[in-house]
Specification:
The complex is a heterodimer of chains A (about 250) and B (about 525). With about 250 residues, chain A is α/β, with parallel strands linked by helices. Chain A is about 20% helix and about 25% strand. Chain A is globular. By secondary structure, chain B is α+β, with helices and mostly antiparallel strands. Chain B starts with a helix and ends with a strand. Classes of the chains: A alpha/beta (about 250), B alpha+beta (about 525). At the A-B interface, α2, α3, β5, α4 and β8 of A face α16, β12, β14, β16 and β17 of B.
C-alpha cells in the first residue's frame, strides 16, 4: 500500500511542487519576452493575469506597433496563442519577421461596438490579447476586463490609453539608421522605451533597444557612453552577445 | 416473354423503360448557367458541336460540325463549352424526380436513365400510364421535357425513346430490324458494315454470331447481339445517396437559448451516430434554425477535426445567442444581410453535415497541433465568430509577392491556410527586411516637394527630378524629409491590363523620427506603409 502511494506521488512529482520552492523561471505564471525587454517588466516577462499597456508613441510613428509585436514575439514563439483586436493595419510580414507564429495569431480587425464582449470571449481562451483601445474607455469596462484576465490567467495588452494597467510601456524616442540622402535603406532603429506602473513597477525605467536588430532586438550601448545615437557614421558593432541591460532613466 | 429465351438459353431481356431528355447538354447549360435554350445554342467539345438546341438545328447546325462552320450557318449562335460535371449535376434533380414516382433508376449518362418497366407499369395500371406519369412528374418538378421508350432490353428502349414508342413485349427484334446500322453507335464498325453492304440491323443480325466474333472481335459480337434484340444486361440500379442531415421539429417553440442548445445536443448525438454509422467525418457543419414565423438563420461552421456533440451544441448556442439577443451581424460585418431579431420561438433545428470525408482519412496533427491550449483557443475564437460572424476573425498566411500587402493573405479563422501566391519562385523587387509594422489597407494620397517647392517626379528612366525635401499627407502640415532612398521600380502583371501596376517606391525618413514607404504611380504619390 505504501509502495503504491510512493508510485502515485512520483507520478505527480512533475505537476506538484511545494509552495516554497521557486517556480522555475516562472514558467507557468509568466510568458517569456525578448531578453532586451525583460528589465522593463516587473516579473521579467508577461505575468499571466496582468495588464501591460503599450502607449501609442508620443511622437507619431515612433515605434509603438513594433514594440507591441516585439512583446508578443517570444511568447508566440514559445507556443502561446495571441489575438489582436482592432488593429486592421498590422503588418503581418513584420510580425513574421519578428518570430510571431502566424498560425497562432488571430486577428479581429473590426470588433465594432461589441469590442468588450469580444475581448472578454478571447480572454477565456487566448494567452495574450492585444486590444487597440477605441477612444476613451470607461473604468468599469477596464476593471471588468482586467479582472477577467486575472481570473483566466491571460495577459491583456491594451494598445493606447488604458487606466489601471500594471505596467505601461511607452516609446519615448526612436531614430532610424541606414537611410542617407538618396542611398542606403532603413536598417534598424534605436528605440527608447520607458516603463511606468504600479506596485513592483512603480519605479520608472527606461531602456534603449535596437528594433529590429540583426535577427531580433538588440540592446543599445548605454547612453552617456562614448557613442551617441545617430552621430557616428559607423555601424555599431553587431552585438551578438547579450550585454546586460542598463537603466538609463532616473 | 418466353420467346426471347430461345436458342442461347440466356434469360429474356428485361422490359426496360428509358427516360431520355433531348439535347441534355443544352438544357443543363440553361439550368446551371442560365443560357436560354429557346435561342440557338450549341455545346462544343474539342471544337465540334456536341449538342445543339432546336432553334439551332432549324438553322442547320448539326452534331459534329466545326465551330466556325456552325457559326457561319447560324451567326447568332451562342456557344457553350462542354462540361460533363455541369450535365451530371443538373441531371441529378431529374433523377431525384423520377425516383419519387418509380424505384430502381440507373443513370446511363447525363440526360438518359433507365428503370425496370414492370413495377411502375403494374402500379400505374399499364406501361403507357406509367410513362405519362413519369414524363408529367419530371416536367412539373424540374421543368424539363423528356421522352420515354419502353422495350425489351436497354438498347431497344433507347432507340424507342427517340420516337417515344412503346414496343410490345417480344417485338424488339422486329422493331430493330428496319433501323440503319448507325443506331449501334459504333462509327468504325458501321462504316465497315456499310461497305460490306449491310444497311439495316436485320442484315447485321442475320450474320452467324460465330463469324462476327471471329471477324470483327468482341465489341462487334456484343453489337451483333444487340442488333438481334438479345440485350441481356441487367440494370445497374443506383443507390440514392444517404440523407445525413438531421432535423427535429418542436411542437413547443424554443424561445430560450439554453433550451435550444439542450435540444441541439440530442440532435448532435443523432448526427454523430449517423455519421459514424457511415464511417464519415464532416469538416463543415451547417446549422439551420427556423422560427414559428418562418424566419430562417443558416450558418456554416468550419472545423478541422471531428465535431463532438458538445462542440455542435456549443455552436448552436453561439449562433442562436447572437441571433436571439440581436447582437451579431452589425451592418457590414461579413457583407451579408443581417436577419432581424426573431419574433417568435424556434420550431425547427436542422444540422447539415458538409465537407464529408472518410473517418479514416482524418489525420489530426501529432505534435504541437493538438492539446488543451489549442482547443481552448479554438473555442474562444469560434465564440467570437459566433458574435461577429465567421469572416470577422482572421488569420494571416504568408505567400509570395513584392509588397507586404500582397504577401500576407488574410483568411477567415478555420479556413484552409493556403497562401494567395506561391512563395516558391523568387520575387525580385521585394524590399529587404525590416518590414513595415503598419501596412495601410488603402494607400494614403500624398505629395512630395523638393527644396524649390516643385513636385518631385520620376522619369521613365528612373531619374528623380530633385531630392525630396517635404512631404504633405492629406491636409496635415508639411513634414521635412531628412533621408530618402529610391526609386525602386516595380512593374507587376503588365501582361494583364486590368491588374497591372507600375510604380516606383521610396523609403523616406522624416524629421519627426518616423519612416514611411512611399510609392509613386502615374504621377501620384501615396503612403503605402509606415515603419512604426
Amino acid at each position: 500500500m505504501a509502495g503504491r502511494m510512493t508510485v502515485g506521488s512520483a507520478a505527480l512529482a512533475d505537476l506538484v511542487r511545494p509552495a516554497s520552492a521557486p517556480d522555475a523561471a516562472g514558467a507557468y505564471r509568466t510568458l517569456p519576452v525578448l531578453p532586451e525587454l525583460i528589465g522593463l517588466l516587473p516579473n521579467r516577462g508577461l505575468r499571466r493575469g496582468s495588464t501591460v499597456a503599450v502607449g501609442t508613441g508620443q511622437p507619431a510613428r515612433s515605434g509603438g506597433t513594433s514594440l507591441l509585436l516585439a512583446l508578443l514575439a517570444e511568447a508566440s514563439r514559445a507556443g502561446s496563442w495571441c489575438a489582436v483586436v482592432g488593429v486592421p493595419t498590422l503588418g503581418m510580414v513584420a510580425a513574421a519577421e519578428l518570430g510571431i507564429a502566424l498560425d497562432r495569431l488571430a486577428l479581429v480587425p473590426h470588433p465594432g461596438p461589441e469590442w468588450a464582449t469580444v475581448v472578454a470571449a478571447l480572454i477565456d481562451g487566448v494567452d495574450v490579447v492585444v486590444i487597440a483601445v477605441p477612444g476613451t474607455v470607461s473604468a468599469t469596462v477596464t476593471d471588468r476586463l482586467a479582472a477577467r484576465a486575472r481570473q483566466r490567467g491571460s495577459v491583456l495588452l491594451p494598445y493606447g490609453q488604458w487606466a489601471g494597467a500594471d505596467v505601461t510601456l511607452q516609446v519615448v524616442a526612436g531614430a532610424w539608421e541606414g537611410l542617407g540622402q538618396g542611398r542606403g535603406r532603413l536598417r534598424r532603429r534605436e528605440v527608447t522605451v520607458s516603463a511606468r506602473g504600479r506596485g513592483a513597477a512603480a519605479r520608472p525605467k527606461e531602456v534603449k533597444v535596437w528594433m529590429p536588430g540583426d535577427d531580433a532586438t538588440r540592446v543599445v550601448k548605454p547612453v552617456g557612453g562614448t557613442r551617441t545615437a545617430g552621430s557616428s557614421a559607423a555601424w555599431p558593432e553587431p552585438v551578438s552577445r547579450r550585454t546586460p541591460l542598463t537603466l538609463v532613466g532616473p | 416473354m418466353g420467346g426471347g429465351a430461345g436458342e442461347t438459353g440466356q434469360p429474356a431481356p428485361v422490359r426496360t423503360l428509358l427516360v431520355w431528355c433531348p439535347d441534355w447538354p443544352v438544357i443543363a447549360a440553361e439550368i446551371v448557367d442560365g443560357v436560354p435554350a429557346s435561342t440557338p445554342v450549341a455545346v462544343l467539345h474539342a471544337n465540334r458541336v456536341l449538342a445543339c438546341s432546336t432553334a439551332a438545328r432549324a438553322e442547320g447546325v448539326r452534331r459534329g460540325l466545326r465551330k466556325r462552320e456552325a457559326q457561319s450557318r447560324c451567326p447568332q449562335l451562342i456557344v457553350v463549352d462542354h462540361d460533363p460535371g455541369r450535365d451530371a449535376r443538373a441531371f441529378e434533380s431529374v433523377v431525384a424526380a423520377i425516383e419519387e414516382v418509380a424505384a430502381g433508376v440507373e443513370v446511363i449518362r447525363p440526360g438518359v436513365c433507365a428503370l425496370a418497366a414492370r413495377g411502375p407499369a403494374r402500379y400505374f395500371g399499364g406501361e403507357e400510364q406509367a410513362a405519362e406519369r413519369i414524363v408529367e412528374h419530371v416536367a412539373q418538378t424540374c421543368l424539363v421535357e423528356s421522352q420515354i421508350g419502353i422495350a425489351d432490353g436497354l438498347f431497344a428502349a433507347g432507340l424507342a425513346a427517340r420516337t417515344g414508342q412503346i414496343v410490345p413485349p417480344g417485338d424488339a427484334p422486329k422493331f430493330l430490324a428496319d433501323l440503319p446500322v448507325e443506331a449501334l453507335g459504333r462509327p468504325p464498325l458501321t462504316d465497315l458494315l456499310r461497305r460490306l453492304g449491310l444497311r439495316t440491323l436485320a442484315d447485321f443480325a442475320a450474320l452467324p454470331a460465330g463469324d462476327v466474333l471471329a471477324r470483327f472481335g468482341f465489341d462487334a459480337a456484343l453489337a451483333h447481339q444487340l442488333a438481334a434484340g438479345r440485350d441481356h444486361r441487367r440494370l445497374a440500379v443506383r443507390r440514392p445517396p444517404p440523407d445525413l442531415a438531421v432535423t427535429e421539429t418542436y411542437d413547443e417553440p424554443l424561445d430560450r437559448v439554453d433550451a435550444a442548445a439542450f435540444a441541439a445536443r440530442a440532435l448532435a448525438e443523432r448526427l454523430h451516430e449517423t455519421l459514424s454509422g457511415h464511417a464519415l467525418a464532416c469538416t463543415r457543419l451547417g446549422i439551420e434554425a427556423v422560427t414559428e414565423h418562418g424566419q430562417e438563420l443558416h450558418r456554416v461552421w468550419r472545423h478541422d477535426g471531428l465535431l463532438s456533440s458538445a462542440a455542435i451544441a456549443d455552436r448552436v448556442r453561439w449562433q442562436l445567442d447572437g441571433w436571439l439577443s440581436g447582437t451579431n451581424r452589425r451592418p457590414g460585418a461579413g457583407g451579408r444581410v443581417a436577419p432581424s431579431r426573431p419574433t417568435s420561438g424556434i420550431i425547427r433545428l436542422r444540422l447539415i453535415p458538409d465537407g464529408l470525408l472518410a473517418q479514416a482519412g482524418l489525420q489530426p496533427g501529432l505534435w504541437g497541433e493538438t492539446g488543451a491550449e489549442r482547443d481552448r483557443a479554438h473555442r474562444a475564437l469560434s465564440r467570437v465568430q459566433g458574435i461577429l460572424g465567421p469572416e470577422s476573425v482572421l488569420t494571416a498566411v504568408l505567400g509570395g509577392g513584392r509588397s507586404d500587402a500582397d504577401r500576407a493573405r488574410l483568411v477567415p479563422w478555420g479556413d484552409e491556410r493556403t497562401p494567395g501566391r506561391p512563395a516558391e519562385p523568387p520575387w525580385p523587387g521585394r524590399l529587404p527586411p525590416p518590414a513595415p509594422a503598419v501596412v495601410l489597407a488603402a494607400p494614403l494620397p500624398a505629395a512630395v516637394y523638393d527644396d524649390a517647392g516643385e513636385p518631385v517626379t520620376v522619369t521613365a528612366r528612373l531619374q528623380v527630378s530633385a531630392a525630396p525635401a517635404r512631404l504633405v499627407v492629406g491636409t496635415a502640415a508639411p513634414v521635412e524629409i531628412v533621408g530618402w532612398a529610391g526609386p525602386w521600380p516595380l512593374d507587376e502583371r503588365w501582361w494583364a491590363p486590368a491588374e497591372s501596376r507600375r510604380r516606383a517606391r521610396f523609403q523616406v525618413r522624416l524629421a519627426d523620427g518616423g519612416a514611411l514607404l512611399l510609392s509613386l504611380a502615374g504621377g501620384q504619390w501615396a503612403v503605402e506603409a509606415v515603419y512604426d
